[in-house]
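Ticket #4471: complex job returned nothing on first submit. Input attached below:
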Amino acid sequence: MISNESKVKTLLKVDGLNVIYGHKKEAVHAVKDVSFYIKPGEIFGLVGESGCGKSSLGKAMVRLVDPASGRIGFKEANVAQLKGRALQEYRREVQMVFQDPYGSLNPRMKVGHAITDVLTVHRIGKNMEERRERVTELFEAVGLEPDWAWRYPHEFSGGQRQRICIARALALNPDLLVADEPVSALDVSVQAEILHLLKELRITRQLAFLFISHDLAVVRNLCDRVAVMYNGEIVEMGDVSKVIDHPQHEYTRTLLAAVPSF
Amino acid sequence: MSEKGKSLWGDAWLRLKRNRLAMVCLGLVVLFTALALYGEVVYRYHDWKDISPAYQKTNLDLAYQAPSSEHWMGTDGLGRDVMARLIQGVRIAYKVGIITSLIAIPIGVILGCLAGFFGGKVDDFIVWLYSTFASMPGLLFILAIAMVVPDNGLLGIYLGIGLTTWVGLCRLVRGEVIKHKEQTYVQAAKALGLGSGRIIFKHILPNISHVIIVTFSLRFPAAVGTEVIMSFLGIGVQGEPSWGLMIDSARMRLWQGMWWEMTFVTLAVFLLVLAFNLLGDALRDALDPRLND
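Support reply: We reran it on our side without changes. The output follows.
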């Protein structure tokens, strides 16, 4: 399936990753021995039903969850072992956008301040003036009015909030964006706008995506390659057209059969 | 994106303004605060001039006079004006309420935040600590601390009440922080590389500030009440007109029909406690972010 993998220039390479929650008797093995890679500027889809471990895998990529074992290779470093300053450096390269645009923004903080806060922590921009300018740029990049930056989250719609979350993730100029079901909480028309934005960012910023979704139509429309996850394991992986049009694994077929349009 | 955005505090204020009872209570709180400030000015002025203030001057000829146009709330057993002493009592009550809050609230908030955010061993230790404090009977503990403090006056009360009343707030804050740290905005902040201190104090704390404000408005009258009890028992304030001392002295001749001192002081305590409690309840409703949509 991934025959000449070693020859491809990869951005992120995951080998035998395991994520386990809890201890001993109550342990839940959420991600089992998962391996995959993402090329620079590529949109890599990850599909599966809820509870299959795809979110855990996404969180492990940004080290919100510590992997139990395995290797996450990113530019020669093993991300699974990073600590302190090195981890902080890594956070500039890989960012995450979450599913729930309502919970992802601090309700008591103006959205522009949420971004300048991140810039301050990473010492980007010499002073507040420069950071504010950066916020303006980011807002324009995601298609929002820059004046809106100094408002509170509750004044925005779901789609606008998701744009703000994307702007915040872009603040650090990452190479890879982990998007955990970024559109599943939005209306269909808004979904299309956000997906369009992601495609645009991929071109303008050479951004790669790990796009986690349960929506096969969206994945097919957006992704280059896709992995199908079931019960913590990747059961099938390959080019999106191949996997969706000629599924090899039993579970992929079941998944496809569950969607009326396929 | 309709009109110019209002802050969440603005929204809360609008909700509070609609509650008429709360506004009456707020008026009373403002009145008491003004009286406390006035009392402080009078006290400072006499202290500065080094003269004995009117509310301390004894004149046995004027003892136990019923309320009149000259002494609106009558005079006490040593001929001192009850109203002037009552106002000084507001000053003492506020001092106790504010200073004990300045001790108790930071302890409760900081320990609660640390316990909730870090969990594990830190949480175990802090829960053990506040459970130990909570297991001792409150007033006894306060009395013990007040006895140990050398200067047998207000300092003992401040420390006694301050060091024992952080437990409830600590528990509340811990619970709220546990709730918030699982929310995506905190997860996002972690993924963005923000430090724990920044996440706790700049991101989570503003979201739970309503808990702190409500707790303040509820613990303030409780602290005042405790001071009254302690001064009544003779362990608290000495030489200054505290409400507790006034109640203590008023009870001597109550049976002879000298009703005014007791009546006005208890009325003042009652109004202060009631106003703060009702306002606290209204604030809780107004500030609760779950009502926002």
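The first helix of chain A runs from residue 54 to 61. Closing as resolved unless it happens again.
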